[in-house]
Amino acid sequence: ISYCGLALRHVTKDFKLQNFILGCFMYDMESQTAPNIRQFVESHLLSFGLTLDDSKFVVTDNENKMRAAFKTGCIRVGCSIHYLNKQVEHSFTSTDIDHKPVNCHTAQDLFERTKRIVAHVRRSHRQMKLERKLQTYSDTRFSGAFYMLEVFLKVYDELPGVLNKHFMDDFVSIDKELMKELCDFLELFDRVINDFSEEERPTSDLVIPYRQLLIDHCKINRDDSVGLKELKLFIGERIKLAWIPQDEHYIATLLHPSLKHFDTSPKDKDKAINLVKNELLKHVPVVDDTSQTTATTNMITKKT
Question: pTM, whole model, 2 decimals?
Fold first, then answer.
């Protein structure tokens, strides 16, 4: 059974942001093709007296069927949280992406061993002996890898008391220092995702500065471990390739009083200025020079 959640964000004339949860609806179409998804969404919007058109923005995840479903008849904006979370997910769980190998073997080995131990402890009900409840990994939860590793690290020294010999082999193979490095590295990603999830204000103006912040965060330092270097290299490149800002993000950043100087990415400022100019020109009335000249000539003739 699949479900589709619909939410509405509306900015009032006095620039107040309003959030409405329209509902979480059971998907009852025969297949999840792009036309069916579009029809399903439009039918539920219509029940609220809402319709899509070229002036409406639609934010969705970035799967191909969602991109195709909202390609026309609205302005689709890809969800930045989804873009970001997917790249972190790939770094821990994928062997290849876009026909290229994911070279994060050290971090993936640690991740898989941790996941096995967490599953065992929760299944055996031994976590009652731990100070914190271990978190299982879920690919549908944002920052899922970070939360699992973070809690595991906090109870690391307690775990030998609840593990049998089979899982102790996994445990002793986990590099605690590497796990701490990974948690420290991933913490910023979690903070960015939380900021993007803000419900009291629009966040499209944060996309460009935060994207650049994370790219800079992925720069390799001399004292980084091999495992962290692999992770940084992969995620940094994936952010550049997969998370591409849209025109709306450039415009929103330029219009923000504190971000308009593009301090984190100065090279993007000229593009943003041109985009804003083009948007303004769309709303400037077109003057018919021929009619204006004719009218002026007639006035001169009458005076003469």
Answer: 0.86
